[in-house]
Amino acid sequence: MSFSCGIVGLPNVGKTTLFNALTAGQAEVAGYPFTTINPNTGVVPVPDDRLETLARLIKPQKLTPTTITFVDIAGLIKGASQGEGLGNQFLAQIRDVDLLVHVVRCFEASDIPHPPGLLEPVRDVEIIDTELLLADLEIIGRQRLKAEKQGRGGDKRVLALLNLLQRLEEGLDQGHWAREMPLSESELEMLHEIPLLTRKPYLLVANLSETEMQLRHYLPGLEALAAARQVPLIPLLGDLEAEIRSLPAADQREFLEASGLSESGLNRLIRESYGLLRLITFYTIVGPEVRAWTVPEGTPAVRCAGKIHSDMEQGFIRLEVMAYDDFARLGSAAKVKEAGLMHVEGRDYLVQDGEILFFRFQK
Questions:
Q1: What pLDDT, in 10s, does the model give residues 247-277?
Q2: Beta strand 316-322 with 343-345: parallel, antiparallel or unpaired?
């Protein structure tokens, strides 16, 4: 299973610069709208201090981090939900991703036009959010008409769906995102096949200049908006982040330390995206390789085995589990076993974040 984060926003806000910094890519960047028409896609390693510690302890020949995919989607404009710009095409691309990374321009640049006119980041966020709400209202309207026809026969499931769609429509009309509305397990199941944009996890990235980082003309308004919507806000300097990312790893650390930073804005963005998707990481140590794996929270052991190979899922016998903290403290799997800190679990055991797993299966 692959998890993807769509980078969205108005044209000329720095989405492709951010994408290139994340992926060390070479996607075209230009100071005019719609440079990106077909989405750029890049697979990014997830920063992982635990994996680095395991590497120091074990010194494997091969170290494989877990990854997450970022998709650079072309700029949306006001009216996109009615087909303005290339709106329908872009909105369809957004529906395919699991999480929305909304980049907001907070830098002045006379040579890079800003389509809405004067720089007003809060207004810019509201333009994009309105288009997403309108696009969902259109989908719900079509689904409601379909359900109304099917519900004439009195089918209880169809009538329940119709009631749900009407509630969602009322909420969206009032500016509430679908993910903010309380839904039961059965209602969530009914929505599984309806690709609502406002049900996706969401975060804001403030793309700053050095001047804005110091003077904070625009950040306070965005901070208040993010707090009200209960979404993460990540301030970063897109051009500087791209420069940092181009340095060797040791030089990156030295640069950040000299700047008084514990990590780059890009690393925080990757971690926040990973967390919002409710993903966890487990580790395997097999021969010369230490590897990190990604699964959703609440994944049973047998499904984790299948993540590695279908034969392991089919022939699953048991799972041997070690806590990362125990391994890091004692230094090896043998010492964890000697201390009696390894436990054996069955196929339905729910794997926890950070566990080191040894699968036993019949070939």
A1: 887 788 888 777 777 788 888 898 899 999 9
A2: antiparallel
Return the pLDDT at 249: 76
HSE of 98, CA atoms in CB hemisphere, 13 A: 15
DSSP annotation of 174 reads: T
For residue 55, give every residue at least 6 positions away whose Cβ sits within 8 Å of its Cβ, in sequence order, or none. Answer: 63, 290
**Size of the chain in residues:** 363
Predicted TM-score (pTM) of the model is 0.84
Beta carbons of 20 and 242 less than 8 angstroms apart: yes
Tokens of 339: 């201390």
* DSSP 8-state class, residue 339: T
Cα-Cα end-to-end distance for the chain: 23
- Tens of pLDDT, residues 3-43: 889 999 988 898 888 888 888 754 333 333 334 445 788 88
The span from the CA of 122 to the CA of 306, in Å, is 44
Instruction: Give every CB contact of residue 153 below 8 A, 6+ residues apart in sequence.
Output: none
Closest CA to 321 of 352, 300, 348: 352
